[in-house]
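=== RUN LOG ===
request id: a7f3
mode: sequence -> structure
chains: 1
length: 63
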Amino acid sequence: MPIDPPRIEWRRRCASGACVEVAEVGRSVAVRDSKDPDGAVVLFTRSAWSEFLTGIRQYEPRR
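=== RESULT ===
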């Protein structure tokens, strides 16, 4: 199944010079490397994506 039909809107997010693109795909969240848009795509359930972001935020260095 192609992950990049024209109706999918990829959003870019960057931190420390590394960027990923994130898109809603049905009931899932797709993530890909912004430097390799034709490469691998990782699909998360919405709950797994939410848990992933929560984990990252808990360990984010304070400024």
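=== NOTES ===
Residues 10 and 23 are 5 Å apart (CA to CA).
The radius of gyration is 13 Å.
=== END ===
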